[in-house]
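Why does this matter for the project? Reviewers at the last site visit asked to see concrete outputs rather than summary tables. In response, this paragraph embeds two records directly. Each consists of the residue sequence and, immediately after it, the corresponding structure tokens. Nothing has been edited or filtered.
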Amino acid sequence: MIGADLVARILKQEGVDFMGVIPFNSLEEAGAKAGIRPLIFRQERVGVNLADGYSRITNGRKTGVFAMQAGPGAENAFAGVATAYADSVPILLLPASSPRSRHGVHPTFRPSETYSSITKWAGSVSVADSIPEMLRRAFSQLRMGRPGPVLLEIPSDILREEVSEGLGNSYSRVVSRRSAGDPQDIKTAAKMLLGAQRPIIQAGQGVLYAEGSEKLKKIAELSGIPVMTTMAGKSSFPENHPLSLGTRSS
């Protein structure tokens, strides 16, 4: 088994069922062998947009994955990733990368460095044995805390390197953990909301990711407070409801 096969096996364990790709990326064939359907695109931003849309419509329960070529291919994905970052959409980016012997040699492009400002987390695999650990970090970032795009750069020589079968066998799927607000703070917020003269509830996409639309509707109806959604939060509250104020444009 080589590094690319190990990556594909772990992606399959994490529930990835398709992967957007721009040929050539070593993960394309490895993913297909592992049962991950490859969707081939002609332009990187379109592939990122599809991964973005997939994560949105599943409320983050499924993760959109996109693997692009090294160099210009990774560069062309920038605008799509920036959009996902601005909207806090959890997607996994697996850019092809030059072999480690070329790192630090001008003008080698390093995605993990360039994308650090528009991703929630950007990392790089330095040795083949750390593939499971780095993928676990990536999926932990995807499933916990505020959502956002995550990038893991894996050098091409590591993807071709022979690795132990045991590395894949010992991997266990990352379990999502959610934090809750302090009960006293929640009571204080409720008192402030009910005591306001002209309150409005502004609902964002966090309601969708938490699958809390019914609870939002119940709160609005019990309190009689109108609800306005953000663009990303559209459909979190029914727009034909008497308490709906529609969607704010910006």
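We now turn to the second protein, recorded in exactly the same manner.
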Amino acid sequence: MVLPHPLHPGTLLRRYQRFLAEVRLSDGTVVTAHCPNSGSMKGCAIPGSPVLLSHSDNPRRKLRYTWETVQVNGVWIGIHTGRTNQLAREGIEGGVVRELQGYESIRREVRYAENSRIDLLLEFARGLCYVEVKNVTLVEDGLALFPDAVTTRGQKHLRNLMQMVREGHRAVTLFIVQREDAGALSPADAIDPEYGKLLREAAGAGVEVLAYQAKVAPPEIRVYRKLPVQL
């Protein structure tokens, strides 16, 4: 994936009201940017951190700038959760995610379960594969952790995937770690113990749990290797 061109460098002043960020651009101008991440962004919203913003000329947009990446301790991190599904799809179509090869078609945002949409639906000759994609930005002591805030929505997704397995389908939760300083992934039990419990339950029920790492080297982000999962 190549991020929108050009990217505008700046310094994070603050993130506030969850979806807003105040950034000082390299020319000294202070702008308010859209923050496309609903999590806590623990460790990723430190004032003074270098950031990169994309810009839109769409006159209908209230905020012209969008926060794309942040650099923490020399490591670039992709914080735009709206790009994660495309990253996952590129990883699948490019053959990097080996567990999800051999599909005949791939669709996005398909309705399933009760009042839900699956991120990616892969159709194989032998059946359907439901793939729920999660963006991971939190790393502590070399371990990628998800979620970074309590996620009732994420808990619902795991229950839905277990339902798909019971109905005879293949189901996968695919974590995309958008930073390179992690060597493995684990549920963040200290943040959301219920999610960790459900993830282990789902794995035991036949839901496949996969984690892949993305190389964030602006303007490019690409999925490039598998990470071990520690449940």
